[in-house]
Design brief:
By secondary structure, this protein is of the alpha/beta class. Among the domains are: 3-185 and 224-242, Rossmann fold; 263-297 and 342-505, Rossmann fold; 506-597; 1062-1151; 1165-1237, no CATH class. Helix content is 53%, strand content 10%. The chain has a 7-stranded mixed β-sheet with strand order 15-14-20-16-19-18-17. A hairpin with a 5-residue loop joins strand 4 (100-102) and strand 5 (108-110). The chain starts with a strand and ends in a 5-residue tail after the last helix.
């Protein structure tokens, strides 16, 4: 009997690309799959009638020119089924592994190496293969397809089925349905691996056959036990009678299981079956772990975290600042750390070398909060051990599966039975058990135990139970054990003293978070560019202002997975309110636990769930309102709302099981008392929002006696809670409208305001700004348009018809208004700002609006179009400059903007505008060859050295690390004798050549050659950028201080030393010495040196003392102003500095100096009492007569009281405003009102 096989494996696909710059969608498994199938078929047969003649058609990924063409593929398949011979084979077999492609019409193809879907070249159609099989005269046909969409071959028409049954035996096995993708594990397709196992002669006893029937039976068993195979939904079809391959060689029902290699291989296969990605049951989407895994670091932990350490971490005892909930992940950060490990370090040092302090790598536990990546990390470690540790036999057990059983019994009964069935056996024999025991006793077994906290509750304390079983078992104590466990269980009491303890680190943002996002969407979008683009869009969305809480929230791998899923399901958008997003997260946590609960026969009733959420809401609300540490919750406080943890039926126990509340440490004064935190501080804010029924909880205004009211709207810890409250779907719309109406109409009772530049009280502004901040959570508010218009008016001014001019508001008002515009409803703001551009011809206002659009309107076509239009309408060069700058921020990659800016280069001869255009092109046209060429051309067109300098700067921006650009800039140094240009080029080299010894050498050479002080100045500046900590550069700069007498250069060198030598006592001493060397006339250098000391010597008593001394040595007003400001920066809370500034306030009659002193005092005042006294002392400067006759005092006084209002509660401010008692502050501020002399 003649048998012919065609075995095809294609790895190389150089023309299959999403974009021209891609290298091609090459594969790794198909070539190796085909080799393995060919070797299986070529095995020597005792009966020559069962031998196969195998033809290989292969393309390996490591061989650039080795491809399978369209003609080769088509001809080989046609010749197999329609051979041009007088003696055709009786049996033919086609095996294909490679890409399977489906076009827009649903037609499926086997892809050859040169497929180009964009040009219509898809490959060999499965329709044609089906027709060939029907036309073929060969009576026994076998087709195995391990490729995507391969199930399409089985989409028979009714006519096909009639012809199919006319005669012949056919076996078709496809890796997946026509709407699914085929997958691989390492260098083997999942289907191919199953085929190879099913074809093993040892699977059937002597006298039985390995046949089409036995292969289908084996494949069905694999589908039942292998979730990776089951996920693909492989298909098979058989007509006619049995097709035999070869006889079985097994002994009865037993298989050879005595060799370590066999056990290692079998356990490795079992391991892959068990490793379905943890997010699958939440999202229904399961990318391969290796495709999305981002290695997590680990820290080696000493002991339970004491709460005192954490409190000190969060609370600065001097200023009482609490944890920022936007950085809530710090709640779970480890405090007791011995060593830190990167992922690969842990594998090599701890697992391979046994470098751990207690157990020498034999007993290890990995801790983490829910969703921290414990299981995924354990999976990766188990894979690594199975692949890298010789003869290691890896056993994986999810401890929830024990369901009350002893671990040893579970391994020898349940685990072993499932494993040998996977190998094709009917059941476990004594030989199998003895062989497995032998692996334990020879020290080859690694036990990976996942989820100690998930063991059944009736086993008591799981850690105690594990410890007892390991100690009492002569089997388990022979194995190396890695265990995962939640922190709250580990820290709750008894734990495993002989285990070395490690804890997972969270992802860092943005690097690892973005890496995971890109990997997650790339894994989904292997054949769909849309999914990959969605991932990129999510990364961009996370960078937006106001997303800081979410950035921190998704450092946890589970929460990041949920975010990715939400983004995909909502087609590239987040829920329209934060409350909806957190609601989805909470629901997902419940879903995440359902599988474990099913195995442990545990369930949560609907009423229990509602009761828990109500209690958590009360707990969260009261903690934010009353607790000393709002986000770390003491045990007694928690018990008031949730009951005792020892009560298995308590809400506290349920909250811990779900993971909504977790132990994060123990009380320092009472280690038996745990300390808790919500899953993330943002979850606590969400639950707190659920705990407020009426908006009166946030604002209850008692106009003439605020002490009787409550004003949580002015307390920063409640802002996010209120935003979440507005986003709740269960709060009536009218209640939200009432709240907003009360905010916009709030009357603080502190003065009457009816001035062109000030029209409300301090807290009236704050309330109105708060109303604007809630609009993104309640976009349908009837007040929204009016609020945005009013905020825009405060931010950019309005046209005063009576005065016939454009009026702007005082600085703190317009500054805060513009900041709020970035928080509120983005689309409304953009629309209003575009409208405002049409209403005003004031160039200053236009520039401000353009600047704001440049911050909030990235990618907005309307804003980009309007700014381009403004370039045409205005002839004001400064406005054009600002517009070009804003376009540079919001129009990255926008061809229209790029073209218009290039056109502007032709239209304007104003060098300032050309500078700005070059700068903006440098931002939005990175890598754009047309732009680069145009800028290089501009170097030749212009003789203006400043312009050449700006062009050089833009080239530096878009060509970082580009050797050609660097070479061109170095060449420019030789071409020009203009010192300004040379200085600019030196500066750009400093930006793009960090650490480049050649660039450093060339700049030092230039420093020696030139006598031009400006050039030396720029060179010194560049060396400061690229030579931080470089002793040679530091020495050369110090030497330059002695070589030059130019006061400006000395000032610059001092500044650079400050940049590269922060905290360096030698540099500080040298700068202080320089102060003594500078003549009294050289105020500029002295000012510069003083500023540098201020930058590098914060809190340094010597520097502060020297600067105070400088007051007494100088009479120069400018220097005194500068020193006052510097002290305001480095001397916060310093009594000596405060005293000297107060003294100076008495002494000076100079307006500028008084302003600087007032500013500095504002910087260093920090206590509530000081702010209170400041309001009382300064308020008289805000009277009508001051506004009308001494306006120069009004803005500074307004600014200071504005600052006080941000740091006092409304009742405190109200009391201070109406206070009558005189004090020192009145006397001090009286001096601000002295006539200017």
């Amino acid at each position: 009997m003649k048998r012919q096989a065609l075995v095809i494996g294609i790895n190389r696909y150089p023309s299959l690309k999403d974009k021209p710059t891609d290298t091609g969608k090459h594969l790794h498994a198909p070539y190796h799959d085909a080799i393995a199938i060919g070797e299986m078929l070529n095995r020597p047969q005792e009966n020559p009638d069962f031998s196969w003649c195998v033809e290989n058609l292969l393309s390996n990924d490591g061989e650039t020119g080795n491809v399978v063409s369209a003609d080769e593929l088509r001809d080989a398949i046609r010749n197999l089924f329609l051979p041009n011979t007088q003696t055709p084979p009786e049996v033919v077999l086609l095996f294909f592994a490679g890409h399977g492609l489906r076009d827009n019409n649903g037609k499926v193809y086997l892809a050859h190496s040169n497929v180009k879907p964009r040009t219509g070249e898809w490959g060999f159609p499965l329709d044609e293969l089906r027709q060939l099989m029907l036309e073929s005269k060969i009576t026994q046909q076998i087709v195995w397809l391990d490729c995507c969409h391969s199930g399409d071959l089985l989409n028979f028409t009714s006519e096909d089925i009639k012809q199919w049954k006319l005669g012949g035996n056919r076996l078709i096995i496809a890796a997946c349905r026509d709407d699914r993708e085929a997958r691989g594990v390492r260098s083997r397709g999942i289907l191919t691996e199953a085929l190879l196992q099913g074809l093993q002669p040892e699977r059937e006893p002597i006298g039985n056959w390995i046949s089409s029937y036995s292969l289908i039976r084996f494949l069905d068993r694999q589908i039942d036990t292998n979730p990776l195979l089951r996920q693909q939904i492989p298909l098979h079809h058989h007509t006619g009678t049995e097709i035999r391959f070869w006889q079985g060689k097994g002994e009865g029902a037993s298989l050879p299981t005595s060799t370590p290699e066999w056990w290692k291989s079998l356990c490795q296969q079992r391991l892959e079956q068990q490793h379905a990605i943890s997010s699958k049951f939440i999202t229904g989407i399961a990318p391969k772990i290796e495709d999305v895994y981002v290695p997590l670091g680990l820290v080696e932990r000493k002991e339970k975290s004491r709460q005192k350490d954490r409190d000190e971490k969060d609370r600065d005892e001097k200023d009482g600042k609490e944890l920022d909930p936007a950085k809530g992940s710090v709640l779970y950060a480890e405090t007791e750390i011995t060593r830190s490990f990167q992922h690969d370090e842990f594998l090599e040092n701890v697992l391979r070398r046994g470098d751990s302090p207690k157990s020498k790598g034999r007993r290890l536990v990995i801790l983490g909060e829910p969703g921290a990546g414990k299981t995924t990390l354990l999976q990766q470690a188990s894979r690594w051990v199975a692949a890298k540790i010789e003869k290691a036999v890896v056993l994986w057990v999810s401890l929830a599966d024990l369901q009350g059983r002893n671990l040893e019994d579970y391994l020898l009964e349940i685990w072993l039975q499932n494993t040998v069935r996977m190998a094709g056996k009917a059941g476990v024999t004594e030989t199998d058990k003895n062989d497995l025991l032998g692996q334990f006793h020879q020290g080859r077994v690694w036990l990976f135990l996942d989820g100690a906290d998930e063991m059944a509750a009736d086993m008591g304390n799981p850690l105690f139970e594990i410890d007892k079983q390991i100690s009492n078992s002569g089997l388990l104590n022979k194995a190396r054990i890695l265990l995962t466990c939640r922190i709250n269980l580990w820290d709750s009491g008894t734990n495993l003293a002989q285990f070395d303890v490690y804890r997972t680190l969270e992802f860092n943002y943005p690097v690892q978070v973005e890496q995971f996002i890109n990997s997650w969407f790339t894994a989904l979008g292997e054949t769909d560019r849309t999914e990959i683009a969605r991932g990129e869009q999510l990364c961009t969305a996370l960078k937006e202002s106001g997303k800081e809480r979410i950035q921190d929230l998704v450092k946890n791998p589970l929460r990041l997975t949920l975010l990715c899923f939400t983004w995909k399901e909502r087609d590239g958008k987040l829920p329209d309110t934060k409350a909806k997003l957190y609601k989805q997260f909470v629901e997902a946590l419940y879903k995440w636990k359902q599988e474990e609960w099913k195995r442990n026969k545990f369930s949560v009733k609907f009423e229990d769930k509602k009761s828990l959420e109500q209690a958590l809401s009360q707990l969260a609300r009261e903690a934010i309102d009353k607790e000393r540490t709002r986000f770390r919750l003491g045990y007694n406080f928690v018990c008031q709302f949730l009951g005792e943890r020892d009560d298995e039926n308590s809400r506290l126990k349920l909250a811990e099981k779900i993971g909504l509340l977790n132990q994060v440490g123990v009380d320092a004064d009472n280690p038996d008392r745990p300390v808790y935190a919500f899953y993330h501080a943002s979850f606590q804010e969400y639950f707190a929002a659920l705990g407020v029924d009426d908006w009166g909880y946030f604002l209850h205004h008692v106009p003439k006696n605020p002490a009787l009211g409550n004003y949580r709207i002015f307390e920063k810890q409640w802002k996010e809670v209120i935003l979440l409250w507005f986003g709740r779907e269960d709060v009536e719309k009218e209640k939200k409208e009432e709240f907003i109406e009360n905010l916009v109409n709030f009357d603080d009772g502190c003065g009457d305001w009816n001035y062109p530049k000030v029209d409300r009280g301090f807290y009236e502004y704050r309330a109105y700004f708060f109303a604007a901040a809630v609009l993104p959570e309640f976009t349908e508010s009837r007040f929204a348009d009016a609020i945005v218009s009013q905020i825009a008016k405060w931010g950019f001014g309005y046209f005063n018809a009576q005065e016939n001019n454009w009026v702007t508001f005082l600085k703190p008002i317009d500054k805060e208004a513009r900041a709020v515009l970035a928080e509120t409803d983005r689309e409304r703001v953009i629309a209003r700002l575009i409208q405002l551009l049409d209403e005003t011809s004031d160039n200053s206002t236009r520039r401000s609006i353009a600047e704001s659009l440049g911050k909030i309107a990235e990618g907005n076509e309307g804003a980009i179009s309007r700014l381009i239009q403004l370039l045409d309408k205005t002839s004001n060069e400064y406005t054009r400059d600002r517009v070009a700058y804003s376009l540079g921020n919001i129009a990255v990659g926008n061809e229209g903007a790029i073209a218009r800016l290039i056109q502007l280069l032709e239209q304007t001869s104003d060098n300032s505008t050309r500078w700005r255009v070059a700068e903006s092109l440098g931002k939005i046209a990175v890598g754009n060859e047309v732009t680069i060429a145009r800028l290089i051309q501009l170097l030749d067109e212009t003789s203006d050295n400043s312009t050449r300098g700006r062009v050089a700067e833009s080239l530096g921006n878009i060509a970082e690390g580009n050797e050609g650009a660097i070479a061109r800039l170095i060449q420019l140094l030789d071409e020009t004798s203009d010192n300004s240009t040379r200085g600019r080029v030196a500066e750009i080299l400093g930006k793009i050549a960090e650490g480049n010894e050649g660039a450093i050498s060339r700049l030092i050479q230039l420093l020696d050659k030139t006598s031009n002080e400006y050039t030396r100045d720029r060179v010194a500046y560049s060396l400061g950028n690229i030579a931080v900590g470089n002793e040679g550069a530091i020495a050369r700069l110090i030497q330059l201080l002695d070589q030059t007498s130019d006061k400006y250069t000395r000032g610059i060198v001092a500044e650079i030393l400050g940049n590269i030598a922060e905290g360096n006592e030698g540099a500080i001493a040298r700068l202080i010495q320089l102060l003594d060397q500078i003549s009294d006339k050289d105020t500029r250098t002295r000012n510069r040196v003083a500023e540098i000391l201020g930058n590098i010597a914060e809190g340094n008593e010597s520097a502060i003392a020297r600067l105070i001394q400088l007051f007494d040595q100088i009479s120069d007003k400018d220097t005194r102003n500068r020193v006052a400001k510097i002290l305001g920066k480095i001397a916060v809370g310093n009594e000596g500095a405060i005293a000297r500034l107060i003294q100076l306030l008495y002494q000076t009659s100079d307006r500028s100096t008084r302003w600087s002193v007032a500013y500095s005092l504002g910087e260093i005042i920090e206590t509530k009492q000081q702010y209170y006294q400041g309001v009382f002392a300064i308020r008289s400067n805000l009277k009508d007569k001051i506004y009308q006759k001494k306006f120069y005092l009004y803005p500074e006084s307004f600014q200071l009281i504005w600052q006080c209002a941000q740091n006092l509660t409304y009742p405190q401010f109200y009391t201070a405003w109406h206070h009558q008692q005189s004090n020192l502050w009145q006397k001090l501020w009286k001096y601000l009102n002295r006539p200017i002399s």
